[in-house]
Amino acid sequence: MPRTTATSAERRRVVAATTIGTAIEWYDFFLYASVAGLVFNQVMFGDLDAGLALIVSFLSVGLSFLFRPLGAVLAGHFADRFGRRVVLMVTLLAMGGATTLIGLVPTYDTIGVAAPILLVLFRIIQGISAGGEWGSAVLLSVEHAPVSQRGLFGAGPQAGAPAGLLLSSGMLALMNIIAPGDAFLDWGWRVPFLLSIVLVGIGYWIRRGVDESPVFEEIAERKETGTRNPLGALFRNFTPVVFVGALVFAGNGVVGYMIAGGYVQSYAVTELGLERGAVLWAVAGAAITWLLSTVVAGRISDLIGRRRMYLGGFLIQAVAAFALFPLVNTGQLQWLWVAMLLLGLGLGVTYGQQAAMYAELFPASVRGSGTSITYALGSIIGGAFAPTIAAAVVQATGSTTGVTVYLLVATAVGFLAMAALRDRTGIPLGPEHEAEQARGHFTLVK
Question: I want to staple 23 with a disulfide (CB 3.0 to 4.6 A). Which of 163, 187, 399, 430 is the partner?
């Protein structure tokens, strides 16, 4: 018989494994985004003028998002048919391998146009991996959780994102000390990428000992195999849910990728002349605030519901988005820190409850595909080209006002999308409740 419940020790192992593994994945992903605006625009894109090189460099960041749906389709399909755990092992190895190889790519001056081609190829592999990682990680954690603590358990893999940003920013700041000035451009930036191979080994060892989700084991026991075409079933029955859920994610993603996508770091250094290491440490501070508020938001959502937590969180995020560039534009390090810490808070309170909300949004038989695809589409809408759009707006207008408007509109879209969804906190997740899970998604539909 399948294990419909998990022991406390198993639950702790799952949360630790998904959090640490996701942190390593996001370390790899965010590392590229940070270096894109600080290094790649100078050494990987030939003789383009500085403004165009920056835009092209950020385009390479966004390009990977276009391949997230492919990773989500593959991972969601195999997670629904064969389990969450095996998908997490594959995505970890793919992400880590691509990141390590990025650290070995020669510059444009050495191999010419092959340099950006290789860079983009490895970035695409990162995008496929990221698209497949998130859905399986959050489901493994949430489906192991007690009903009253799904938000808290789901906040574990959610906290992996700010933890990855903290690790990547911290490593880059450390290498800025070890290899200052031109040495950072020559070789210092490569060390954090090469370190990925060690982190992947640690993550692989941790994830090997994790048990499969009890919900999936029950699905496998009842049907022998999962739904044969979960993707088709998803879009046949839940396309509106996927789209609205993606807009919720996008409302957080546009604002988040101002720092996770490397734009604020690049802007503060190249446009305002702030010292690179000081900016990276401020981003690390934002990551800590983001991490802590993510965990708190996940827990509070267990008490007041995902919907209320989201709606309140988007209001806080709007304040952070409105204040971001006016504070950064002072050119004063202390106000940069205030902006970063406030932004980290705004991101966390619209992020911690996300895993539990997505898990409760879809029926068990298509949950892997539903969470992965919704997340991937939301990433494209809300994160893929946010740094590129910001760079283009500033270059065209000479002002950050348009970027602030962009962030506020995205936040409003996320708020309205969440307002359209009914709160489903605590809904049963097992396959015996498929009928209940398949209805009651929208507030205006009975």
Answer: 163
The answer to whether residue 384 sits within a structural domain is yes
In a domain, 3, yes or no: no
Give every CB contact of residue 171 below 8 A, 6+ residues apart in sequence.
31, 191, 192, 195
- CA dihedral 92→98→102→106, nearest 10 degrees, is 150
Report if residue 443 sits inside a domain: no
Q: What is the CATH number of the domain that holds 193?
A: 1.20.1250.20
- Which DSSP string corresponds to 249-307? HHHHHHHHTTTTTSHHHHIIIIIT---HHHHHHHHHHHHHHHHHHHHHHHHHHHHH-HH
Residue among 368, 364, 384 nearest 132 (CA):
368
- Write down the pTM of the prediction: 0.84
Name the domain count of the chain: 1
Residue 114 is assigned to a structural domain of this protein: yes
Q: How far is CA 176 from the centre of its chain?
A: 25
Q: Rounded to an integer, what distance in angstroms lies between the CA atom of residue 273 and that of residue 330? A: 11
Q: What is the pLDDT of residues 412-436, one digit of tens each?
A: 999 999 999 999 999 998 888 888 9
Asked whether the predicted pLDDT for residue 34 surpasses 70, the reply is: yes
Two structure tokens written together for 412 = 């409003």
pLDDT value at position 214?
66
Dump pLDDT digits (tens) for 144-191: 889 999 999 999 889 988 998 899 989 999 999 999 988 999 999 999
Q: Which helix (H) or strand (E) segment is 36 a member of?
A: none
As a whole number of angstroms, the longest Cα–Cα distance in the chain is 65
Token look-up 């993550």 returns 203
Q: Which residues contact 144 (CB under 8 A, 6 or more apart)?
A: 6, 10, 11, 14, 15, 153, 211, 213, 214
pLDDT tens readout for residues 338-382? 999 999 999 999 999 999 999 999 998 888 888 888 988 898 888
Give, in order, the Cα–Cα distances in Å from 118 to each of 58, 106, 358.
16, 9, 35
Boundaries of domain holding 164: 8-437
139/227 Cα distance (integer angstroms): 17
Q: Please state, in angstroms and rounded to a whole number, the distance separating the CA atoms of residues 323 and 377.
A: 28
